[in-house]
Amino acid sequence: MELDAIAKLVFDILAFSSIMVLVVLGLAVIASMMGIFNLGHGEFVLLGAYTVFVFRELGLPEWTGMLAAPFLVALVGLFVEATVIRRLYVAPVIAMLATFAVGLIIRETVRGLIGGQFYSIDEPIQGFIQIGDVSLSAWRTVIILVTLAVMTACYLFLTRTTFGLQIRGALENPMLARASGVSTARLYAFTFAFGAALAGLAGALMVPLFSLSADLGLRFLVQAFLAVMLGGVGTFEGPVLGGALIGAMVPGFQWLRELPLLNALIQPIVAEVLVFVAALIIVKFRPQGLLSKGRI
Fold it and tell me: What's this model's pTM, rounded to 2 decimal places?
């Protein structure tokens, strides 16, 4: 395999892993602290993508929609938490069903607004970055750098601020946090909005790569749940690791199809199935996840 092909594969893995980390981190933080898997998380990704589309239709540059998306989706998350989820903490199963219903409402509303069509979104930064003989997508490079910046900011917030330490404590031991006088109601509201914001940011960044459709978030929701199971809940590092592994396996197995001996054997759908098989094998031997400290 030539060096430029290897560099291209590594770059594609980093770009897709970056998107997965943003999606998974928000989902896992909600699951770790609140004991609820948000079945509408994919629709928060969709809302982020749809925000970019709306800003473009208003005649504004795509990048303005990308800046606004995490904040607008966070407001939606706050509204959902205050009106629906907050009343159902004592019944996690019902709360998960409620998030599914909310997600269904969001998805079908967006489907109606865009007429069930697919829309392409231009990359705010187009072209390629030339490194030697290798041409790398400028926009995918931006996605990688933004993800690294967001991860660093999240880590510093969780480890260097009082509010962040309260969140980290509630992540690792919610019962002890409540017993210590930490206002978990306020933390829950912030956590749900924070998870929604990360999903919105992921949707805004990825929409130029995947186009806008009402089912955009669904393709990432199952992979995100699998990544949470793989990495484990209850830590900052676990979801990041799980998202990175799933993000590496998706383009990695697709790359196997380019090998002469495997091209005829591995169809695109088989490559996707192999991702689930590999992840489930790991979960079989590490049912609590690779880095889990969580309670679910």
Answer: 0.85
